[in-house]
Amino acid sequence: MTNEPRPTLGPLSLMMLLQYAVWGAWLPLAGRYLSAPTADGGLGFTGPQIGLILGLAGSVGAMASPFIAGQVADRYFRTERFLAFLLLVGGVVKWITASQTDYAAWLWLSILYSVVYMPTLALSNSMAFAHLTDRDRQFPKVRVWGTIGWIVASWLFPMIYLQSDLTLQWMPPFLVGSELDGVTARLADSLRFSALISWGYGAYCLFLPHTPPRRDAVEKLAFAKAFRLLREPSFAVLVAASLPISIIHQVYFIQTPSFLSHLGLQDSQIGPAMTIGQFSEILIMAALGWMLSRLGFRRVIAIGALAYFVRYFIWSIPTLPVEVQVASQALHGVCYACFFASAYIYADRLAPPDIRHSVQTVFGIIILGGGPVLGGILSGWLADRYALAAGGVEFASLWRVVALLGLATAIGFYALFRETSPVRSEPASSA
Fold it and tell me: Fewest CB within a 10 Å sphere: which of 43, 59, 156, 205?
């Protein structure tokens, strides 16, 4: 028994809301703004250039996470203070990026931003796990607020800055209005909106539960110990499956804004339309603890991988009504909650207590590092491979390739993964 009071779920839930609001404020709109012609107010970057900005840049931050976030938070500084520092710096970088129009400036600033933001994803996860008594049941309830934060940010910016005279309609994204003049150029301000949220979140971090580093750790290099967890077969299979899934997950964020514009949605509707997946994610996250207890990690994670295939397969059928193709984004909630949220829980379940931060960041190397850079490369290659002579992309073929990757991963994971018991931490050595 411990006399330390258990923090309520409220502070951790608000932490998750702000964590993903920072991301959701700009990412759904980035692909459209970067690819739109300069005559329309966009930056006119090519497919490969966008792939590097949204793929390579993010991967650099994820690759640096074990050495920046995992090592520092596991061994030296209080997590909540380190989070605050990273978010305050990230807000400054994002604000500066909003005023840039040159490709090189965007690329280097995006790389710098990823170095300070990507570690916060793993740190917020590991902080939540550190203060939860029943991670399998409680983490989905906390993490779902991240989804709500993404939705709020994705809807609030278009409603207050891109549209006027809002009215309800039955077709997604449900709430639409008249677009303001220069709406495409206005998408750049979504980065400034994200910066404001980041600064507010950074200040809030100072009030989060006290999360000190592990002073009694056996090994000083936390990330080195975390990498050795790959010797565990189930974790190795999970990491191997996470790579192709994170690749096609990245293609989604790069290509979907242009795809929705191709379907006829206005620029101001793209962000809200993409949140259909987050609405479904709320429902799946609410049931995730029950699903894991009844179905187990193997079945639930395989369902998440299979959902990627189904969604992309639907998008590869151009004869389907626009309403069906837009509404099928509801499968995104199944994709993310069943695959990634379950994977995070399983990774924490295996991690010894003194390297929880580092295991999350090592796992993040795959899903936020290797996956995004390869996803950016694949997205650029597919955009060139299926480019139309009159401009644009032949999306049916592009999504068909991505769908098949999802199907192969789902089959491979289900065939090879076997759930194992948590790995216990080594006993402390005597002085």
Answer: 156
Q: Strand, helix or coil at 165?
A: strand
Quick: pLDDT tens for 381-421.
998 899 887 777 899 999 999 999 999 999 999 999 998 86
Virtual CA dihedral for 363, 364, 369, 371, nearest 10 degrees?
Answer: 70
Give me the domains of the chain, ranges plus CATH numbers: 9-211+221-416 (1.20.1250.20)
To the nearest 10 degrees (0 to 180), the angle between helices 233-263 and 395-416 is 160
At 109-141, the pLDDT tens digits run 999 998 889 888 878 887 888 888 887 778 888
Sign of the dihedral through C-alpha 217, 218, 223, 229: negative
> For 259-306, how does the pLDDT look when each residue is reduced to its tens digit (9 = 90+)?
998 888 888 888 888 888 888 888 898 888 899 999 999 999 999 999
Short-list 17, 75, 36, 30, CA closest to 376? 30
Q: By three-state DSSP, how is residue 208 classified? A: coil
Nearest to 141, CA basis, from 18, 17, 23: 17
> Helices in 264-355 by DSSP H: which ranges?
267-274, 276-315, 322-327, 331-334, 342-350
Rounded CA-CA distance 236/234 in Å is 5
Q: Assess contact for 21 and 79: CB atoms under 8 A.
A: no
Tokens 């931060």 found at: 357
